[in-house]
Amino acid sequence: MLLVIAVAFLMVHAAPGGPFDSERRPNPAILENIEASYHLDESLPQQFYRYLSGVVRGDLGPSFRYREFTVSELIAGSIPVTMKIGSLAIAFALVIGISVGVVAALRRNTFLDRLATGIAMIGISVPVFVFAPLMMLVFAVMLKWLPASYAGSDGADRYVLPVIALALPQVAYIARLTRASLIDVMNSDYVRTARAQGLKTRSIIRYHALKPAMLPLVSYLGPTFAAVLTGSVVVEQVFGVPGVGRFLVTAATNRDYTLVLGITIFYSAMIISLNLVVDIIYAFLDPRVRK
Questions:
Q1: In the chain, where are the structural domains located?
Q2: What is the DSSP secondary-structure string of 223-275?
Q3: Predicted confidence band of residue 3 (pLDDT cuts 50, 70, 90)
């Protein structure tokens, strides 16, 4: 986290322009007073030490553009929407991806397997910033089934397009990973022994094969959840979702140093925490890891 903060701090300050630059440049004396009030007149090491001291105390500083709010207040107010959409997208991706992967593995080299693999490749190849506007065009503009933006409805239907747009690439990855892992487990010795004992395929998958087949998937889920949250930047911009991603884009455009750094720190802490949770779950699923 210290390395992330240091690199992000240097990159933000190395970007051209400043938080108070505009077409109408203010009076130099006024600009000096503003920079002094935000400690921008200090040297870069002094600014970094001051900022790091605040981060250690849980203070991410004031926003340079949203002057009525601190960075912590802005993140706290927008993170529930981002987390809700991200959690729904992960849940949707897990249910659909695992189901498709299991069917493809059990129907290996059949039409269903090739169909699932082909759709998965399309989901991996088409980026979110292409797929999201296409979904809006088809389902909101042409068919008028769903609202085109988050603010276009007060009901649950406003989550449908953002969640599906976020989840589809992950559905493809999860399906391919589940298929490959389950095929490998189904060819193992203990599964052959279970078949020889007369167990049905459904029982073998449920009690013997599915749990070890999920180990690679669990390792993938930590970075995936973080990728869904950071990937929501594009989706939130397309569908007008008032989440953290929109603040990140606006803050980067406005050179709002503290807000960019605060969101970067938040995302980094999320990734580190999720990787820790994945390690714990991995040890729970595989006793050999605990030993």
A1: 80-241
A2: HHHHHHHHHHHHHHHHHT--SHHHHHHHHHHHT-HHHHHHHHHHHHHHHHHHH
A3: very high
